[in-house]
Give the backbone structure.
Amino acid sequence: MNQEEHEFLCRRILVALDASQQSLTALEAAVQLAARMGAELLGLFVEDINLLRLAGLPFAHQVHYLSATGEELDRHKMERQLKAQAERARRALAAAAERTRVQWSFRVARGRVTLEVLAAASESDMLTLGKVSRPLTRQARLGSTARAVAAGAPRAVLLVEHGTSIGRRVLAVYDGSVGAKRALSAAARLAQASNGGLVVLISAESVEVAQHLEEQVAALLKGRDLHIRYRRLRSPKLPDLAHAAQAEGSALLVVDAHSRLLQGEAIHELLHAIDSPLLLIR
Amino acid sequence: MTVKALNPEELYQRCDPAQFPFQTTADLPNLTEILGQARAVDAVRFGIGIHREGYNLYALGRPGTGKSSILRHFLEQKAAAEATPSDWCYVNNFEQPHKPCALRLPPGQGMVLSQDVERLIDDLRAAIRSVFESEDYRTRKQMVEEEFKERQDKVFEELRQRAQKQDIALLRTPVGLVFAPVRKDEVLDREEFEKLPEQEQQRIDKEIGSLQEQLQGIIRQVPLWERETREKIRALNREVTMFAVGHLIDDLRKKYSALPDVVNFLNAVQQDVVENLDDFINPQAPAALLSLPQSRSLKDSPFYRRYQVNALVHHSVNHGAPVIYEDNPTYHNLVGQIEHIAQMGALITDFNLIKSGALHRANGGYLMLDAHKALLQPFAWEGLKRALRSRQMSIEPLGQMLSLISTVSLEPEPIPLDVKVVLLGERLLYYLLCQFDPDFSELFKVAADFEEQMDRRPENHLLYAQLIATLARKENLRPLESGAVARVIEHSARIAGDAEKLSLRMGSVADLLREADYWAGEAGHDRVSAPDVQRAIGAQIHRLDRLRELIQEEIRRGTILIDTQGANVGQVNGLSVITLGQFAFGRPSRITARVRLGKGEVIDIEREVELGGPIHSKGVLILSGFLGARYAADRPLSLSASLVFEQSYSGVEGDSASSAELYALLSALANVPIRQSLAVTGSVNQYGQVQAIGGVNEKIEGFFDVCNARGLTGDQGVLIPMSNVKHLMLRQDVVEAASAGTFHIYAVETIDQGIEILTGLPAGERDKNGNFPEGSVNQRVEVGLGALAEKRRAFGARMNEEAE
C-alpha cells in the first residue's frame, strides 16, 4: 500500500460551538488534537435561523428553565441572546487555544444549524462536535446535528460525549478494507502524535483471517515507532465492537465511516452504545 | 576551785569495734526498720492511711535525711496493695467538638479501646467502600436516579408529543424553552404565520399558551423531584451504611456493654459516620484541597482524627496505684496541656493533642513533688492547689488562662481527681507556707518532720552498723570491717556535732562510704578498713580546706596576729567558726579591750561599724549588765570600754565570743595579764555563767593547728563551756596531744573559773563583809572600777566648780 495515498491530513480542525457544556467538551477534545497534530482550530457558532424566525411570531414566549417564569420574545431580544452565546463560545475557544498555544479563528454564521456546520466542514480536515447540544430528555442522546453530520459530513468527524476526554490511547477498527486501511493510518498518526499506543480491533469472521489481518497491520505499520496491541472482536458485528471499545476505557475510537459495521442506522447505535469519543474517517 | 584539763577520753567518744558481733558488714542482714525517724514514719503512715480531703503530706527536713526514699518506700508498699485506678480517655464530642468528652475505663482498657476504635475505623472504611462500590448498591442508586430521569423524560416527552401533534415544536433558546409552530421541521416565520387562516392562528396561539402553562408546571416540579431523589439516595446510603457499619460496631458494643459511656460513644461514632459518609469515604486534607503534597498518612487527616481515642492515662492491670515523682513540676507538666500542630501556617488542635499531666498519671494514687521546684515554676503552685481544692482536673493552657491567646481552644471535660500529694522540702519553706499561704494548711494537713540526728546509744550502734551494711550492699560497695564501721559511726557523731548523737543525714554518710570504698580499691583492699575510712575523711577535708590553710599560714607568718605564748593585759584569743559550703573550720581571733573613764558604756566596735550581728551585740550588752551588777552595784559604772575583734574585716555574728570579751575586759580593768597560750570560747550570761556554743570541735582544732604549727609548749589549750563537753569529737591529733599533756581542754562553768585559768590568779569571792580577797582578780576589778568612779566624781566636781 502506498502510504502517501492514505496519509491522514489534519491541518484544520473545525469545532462547532454553542457554548453548551457538551460543546465545550468537544472543544477540549479538538484543542487536544490540534495541539498534538499541530493543526489550526476553527470555531463556528451558528445562529439558528429557526429561533430568529420564532422570535418574529406575535405570540413568541419563552419559559426560563431555571425559574419557570415566562417572558415575551421578540427578534431583537433573541438576537441579543444569540450574540451573547456566541461571545461565550468565542471566549471559551480563545482561552482553550491560548492555553495550548494553538492557532485559532472564530466565525459566526446564521442559518440552519446542520447545513451551516456541514458547509463549514467541507473547508476543514476534521469536524468536532458534541454528540448532543442541550438535551431535554435522554432520548435525545444523539442530537439532530450530530446525527446529520455523522451521516453526511464530507471529511473526518469527531463526536464527543459530554464528560469524556480523548485520552492518549487510540483504537482503530481493522477489517482489511480500503477504508479500514485509511482509518488505521489515521489512527497510527494520532497514536504517534499522542504517544499513547495503538490498539487495533481486528474484525474478522475467523481466527485465520484475524491472524492474517494482524499480519497485514504489522506490515502496514512497519517502521513506525509505535506500541501496537491487538484485540480480536468476538464477531464482526456492531455490539461486539461497542463492547470492545467500552472495555478499553478512555481512548479515541477511529473507524472508517463507510465500514461494513456501520451500515444504515448502525452508526447511531454505535454512538449510543459507547462513551468514548468516536472519530469517523472518510 | 581549780579546773582541771579534761581527760583524753572526754575529748572523743570512741566507738569500740569489739562491741560488734560481726567481722564485716557482709555478716549483717539488711536493716528493715527505719532508723531514728519514728515521728516522721508515724506521720507518713497516718498521712498515707487517712482518706480525707486535705490530708496531703509535707515531708520537712534537711536534704539527705532520707525523706524521698522513706516516702517512696512507704508509698510503693501501700500503692502496690491498692486497686489500680481507672484509665481515662478523651474522645471527640460530636455535638460540641471544642468540649471533648472524658471516658472512664477499667484499668488497662484505655489502650485497648483506642486500638479497637482505630481498627474499627479501618474496618468501617473498607466495609463502607466495598458496599458503595458494590454492583448492588450502584444498581439501587441507579434505579433511584433512573426513576427521576424517567419521570422527567416522561413529562417532557409527553409535552413534546402533545405539541408535535399540533405541529408545534419545543425548542431551546440560549436561556430557556419556547414553543414554535413548524412545518416540515422549519419554524414558520411571521409572514407564513400570518398567511394562515385566522382560526388556525388563534388555535396555535391558544395551544401554545396552554403548552407553556404545562411546561412551567413541569419546570417547577423538577427541583422537587430532584430533592426527592436526593433524599431517597440519602436514605439508601443510610440504610446500606447502617447495615455495613452496624455489625462491626455491634461487636464493640457487645464487648463494652458494661460501660454505657463507651457504648454511647460508639453510637455517636456510628451516627457521625452515617451523617458524614462522603467525607468518610473520601476524606480530604486541607493540603489536598490546595494540591499541596500530602506528607501525612490518611490516618492523620483531620477527618479520621475525629474518631480516634486519646488514651490519656492508661495503667497496666494489677499494677496497683501509681506513685509518680514529677521531677520538673511546671504548670503544664502538672495539670497537662493541649498541644497544637502547625497546619498550613495556622496552629490547630483537637482532643488528640490533649496531653496528660503528672496529676492525671497519679490520679488514684500518689504524687511526689519537690516543694521548692513546684514553688519556683510559674503558676505551678496555683495550678496544683486549684486541682486539689476542686478535686478535679480541667486542662487549661496557660495562654488561655492568662487570656494571652484568644483563639478557640478546647475545654476538655474535667476529670475527677483523687490523689494524695506528697511535697518534699525544707523546714523553712514549710513554715513560710504555713505563714503566708492560707490554703496550704488546708491542703497539706500532715507534716512529716524528719530528724537529722538520733541518740548514740550502744544498742543504736549495731542498728547503725546494719544501716551502713544496707547502704553498702545497695551501692555495691566492698564490705566494711567492724573497725571501719566504728570509724564511720564516730564520724557520723562528728557530722552531728555531738558525741552523744548520730547523724541521720544519710546522704553524707553514703558519700563517705562510697569514697572509703574508692580508697579501699585504690589500696587494693577487698574490704573497707578503718584507715580507708580515715583516708576518705581526710581527703574530703583536704579537698575543701584551701582557705583554712591560707589562714593558718598567715597566722604562722605573723600577718594575722595571734600570740600563743606570753601574757598581755586586755587581750585574749577568741575563736570563731567559718563555714564555707559543706566545710567548717575554726579560726582564732585576737580580741582586745581598752577601758577609760566614761559613763558606763561598753562599746562594741564591730557593732559601731555594722560588722557585728545583733546576737553579737546582745552578747556585748550582757557584759555591761554583768559588770554593773557584780562590781558597781552601789555606784555608777564609770568606765567606757571598747571591744574589738582585731583583724576582722568581715562580719561577726553569734555570742560565742562574749566570754572571751569579758575576760579581756576584766583583764583590762584589773590590769592583770592574760595567758596568750590559751584560747577561749563560750557565751556568758548576766550572772557570769558560761553557756554552750556551736562548732566547739572546729574551734578547738583551729587553735590547736596554730599552736601545733609553732610547736606545742605544753601549757597551751582551749577553754570551752562545760555544757559543750558532750559535743566533743575531736580530731585524733588533738586527742593525742591532750593525752601527751601538751594541749589542754578546760571545761568551765563560770567566768571566775575561766579567769583563774587565764590569769593564774584566784578569782576571789566576796567574804561576809562583801569584800573580795585582796589580790584576787575580782578585787582588782572592783578597785579599778572604784578608781574610775572616784575619778569621775572628782572630775564632775571640778567641772561644777569651773562652771560656777
Summary: The domain at 16-36+452-544 of chain B is CATH 1.10.8.60 (Helicase, Ruva Protein; domain 3). The first strand of chain B starts at residue 57 and ends at 60. Residues 287-295 of chain B have pLDDT under 50 and may be disordered. Residues 198-255 of chain B form the longest helix (58 residues).
